[in-house]
Amino acid sequence: MTGFLESELPIVAAPMAGGPTTVALVGAVQGAGAFPFLAGGYKKAEALAAEVRQVRELGGTFGVNLFVPGADAVDAAAFRAYAAELAPEAAPYGLELNPQPVVDDDDEWPDKLALLLAEPVPVVSLTFGLPDVRDIAALRRVGSRVLATVTTAAEAKIARDAGVDGLVVQAPAAGGHSGTYDPLRTLTPVSAPDLVREVRAAVELPVVVGGGVASAEDVRVLLAAGAEAVVVGTLLLRTDESGASQTHKDALAAPIFAETTITHAFTGRPARGLRNGFIDRHETAAPYGYPAIHHLTRPLRQAAAKAGDADRLHLWAGTGFRAAREVPAVEVIQELARGL
Predict the structure, then answer these.
(1) Which of 50, 169, 183, 319 is least enclosed, having the fewest CB within 10 Å?
(2) Residue 251 domain-assigned?
């Protein structure tokens, strides 16, 4: 048993916001002996509360991930120009994109925090920086272990000083949004094992790590580097229990998509996904600024997903995406645990 997370296996299912992480996926991961996270991002507090209660009824241990609130500055003129550039992308779906930035991140942090204080869960992880240290302390007082997502040793020190219990170390090879505290920072290439060693040398906190995991050998290497557990996300996207769109699932196996890249064109914050036409056409012009760019492109991305249009969809994926299979989630966990 992995003592820090109290799970049988040192494997963690990443919280994949926006639909991929479902209660069914959490249950399947629990049943396989690994540790699952519910994704609280992009979700109303009421919906998260319902999911927490459903998962609690399953009886196993689990965590909840929250996006830390914040609004990155966005240049209004650059935003309007980008909205105009994207108009032809939206036109086939009858959409008119809003040229005015929406900078209010309506992720209901106060309500979600209140929920987790009233109905504590075993673990709470934080992404996109750190909240007020009083919020971290409050979560710990009610019995939750608090993990902070970090992408560098320097961020690990900041998280340690804020009073967290442990760290989720996210290597650049990870799919989806980077948890970097500075969205304008260039994500310097570093392997997940090397990043674990850098963080462990900087702080004395338990570490779980993810980024590019594709095999049982990857898991063994990361554990040997000093991680308490290994996070897997992309490999679960095509599983039977995943709530990812069929367009996303199909793209992960399509020969036309040959590589991943880091882009801010979809949301204004760096994220790794399959390189497609939208990225090629708009990465250079796209301004930074989350969640304003996220709100701008969201209707287009939703329409593209429904239409099977992978060329205009954010296809989040880590570098190990070719290993993602269309199987029950338990098979993915079992394969990653082979030889442990």
Answers:
(1) 50
(2) no
Considering the domain architecture, whether residues 225 and 82 belong to the same structural domain is answered as no
Q: List phi, psi (to 5°) of 146.
A: -110, 125
Name the burial class of residue 46, with classes exposed (0-12), middle (13-18) and buried (19+) by CB atoms within 10 angstroms of its CB.
exposed
Query: Which residue in 164, 107, 112, 108 sits closest to 133, CA to CA?
Result: 164
User: What pLDDT, on a 0 to 100 scale, did the predictor assign at position 212?
Assistant: 96
Structure tokens of 116? Answer: 């987790």
Average pLDDT over residues 117-138: 97
The reply to whether the predicted model has a pTM over 0.85 is yes
Q: Which residues pair with 125 in a beta bridge?
A: 65, 147
Give per-residue pLDDT as tens, 13-67. 999 999 999 999 999 999 999 999 999 999 999 999 999 999 999 999 999 999 9
Asked if the structure places residue 252 within a domain, the reply is no
User: Whole domain around residue 156: which residue ranges?
Assistant: 1-70+107-239+321-340
Same domain, 155 and 218: yes
Same domain, 128 and 58: yes
- My answer on whether 57 and 89 are in the same domain is no
Higher pLDDT: 273 or 103? It is 273
Does the CA dihedral 170-173-174-176 come out positive or negative? positive
Give 1's Cβ-side CA count (13 Å radius): 7
Domain total in the chain: 2
Residue given tokens 């036109």 in the structure block: 91
Nearest Cα to 22, choosing from 219, 266, 211, 245? 245
Q: Are residues 223 and 327 located together in one domain of the fold? A: yes
User: For residue range 90-102, what is the model confidence (pLDDT) as tens digits?
Assistant: 999 999 999 999 8
Q: Both 185 and 269 in a single domain?
A: no
Domain co-membership, 228 together with 89: no
